[in-house]
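Fold it.
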Amino acid sequence: MEKGNVLVIGNSGVGKSTLINSVLGEEAARTDWGTHGTTTRLEIYESAGGQVPFRVIDTIGFEPNYFKERRAINAVKKWSRDCAREGGENNRIDVIWFCVDGTRSKLFAEDIRRMTRAVSMWKSVPVIAVITKSYSVPDREKNVEMVRKAFAGQKQFRDNLKDIIPVVAQIYTINDTAYAPPDGIAQLIDATNALMPEGRRAASHDLAEFVLKRKRVLAQSVVGAATAGAVVVGAVPLPIPDGVILTPTEAMEVNSLAKIYGIDGKDGSKRFLNSIIEAGTVGLAAKSIITILKGIPGINIAASALNAIIAGVIVAVIGETSIYAFEQVFLGKKSVEDTDWIKKIIESRIAETVTEKAKPILQNLSSSSDKKELQQAVLDLVRVLIGRQQDSDGGSGKDRQA
């Protein structure tokens, strides 16, 4: 059975390593006395006998020092980025234990913000707030309410909080005749196991989304470069009766995008890619773009300039649609065997995209527009076309800015 991964995070000295040792039933994580934490990098631990059905990831504790705080946050972020590159069951966070010191009377908003910044990649993963050093039974209820209120004031990760569990990780001696025994560990293990299926789904979603965003950045750079190349090809004295002249540029663009999304261009994939290229060259899509652009009233620019913009728009639209199509395949929502679907998608997007996005930009140009203005017009078109694709996928403002 596949094991899940639990990230243990919190302030330095809160008792993360002691908690891990208590859960795993052995001295897996180093502990020490003092004002500073003992963990200097992320470490993965699991019980030797396999009794605990998940791994535990110890992190660097947050400290009231800007540089040390950044080091702790960046360590988790780097580990998370490496997860996306390496893959595998060890490289995923399924549940987060956010450790809060039960001997403190306050949980500051900044404590939660440190955690959310560190685990920003895992924004859907469930969180269990673990109140460590919960020696005073009467204080536990107040501590639980303290954590609940602190999370309620946070927009980010507010809904991720699934449980709040006070624990005593090891015997705490009060005096010769009184002590606080270990408590809450079994409850924490059970709660974590119960959340693990939800956590695995959330982690897989977050990991796929992160990878998709990285791919999208690379893909958009390809579309930008291909569009610029198309403008050069299109700026010829001869009119463009259709998109055939752009075939080499489009073929390179589509194949480059396919490689980013892991589509190899063999067998069914090759037919899928060819259908995109054909739609952008001799198909209805290319002819529709040419007809629509030339028919926009108020455009008064030289034929060669219009040809250049037409070429740029064709390649930009094909690139934008290719990104959308390849993302659907990457997410498993569509198959490369479905060539009719991609043709319909391209054709359905042409009129709305060109008339609504291109018209306002092109109407600002005139026969006196210089090369720099024309280049800027094409860049603006690329931006709005890419922005349209992100909007259709529910991309955020930050995504579009990136």
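The first helix runs from residue 16 to 24.
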